[in-house]
Amino acid sequence: MQRREFLKVAMAATVPCGVSLAALDAVAGTTRRPLGLQLYTVMSQLEQDFDGTLAKVAKIGYREVETIGSFGRDPSHVRELFQQHGLVSPSQHMVPGDLYQVFERLTRGEMSAADASKHWREVMSFQRVEPIMEECIALAHALGQKYIVWQILWEEQMRTRADLEQFCKALNTAGGMCKQEGLVLNYHNHAAEFAVHDGVVPYDFVLANTDPALVKLELDMFWAVKAGADPRAYFEKHPGRYLQCHLKDGTAAGQITTVGEGIVPFQKLIPAARAAGIEHYYVEQDGAPEPLKASTQAFEFLSRWF
Question: For the chain, which domains are there?
Answer without folding.
Answer: 32-305 (3.20.20.150)
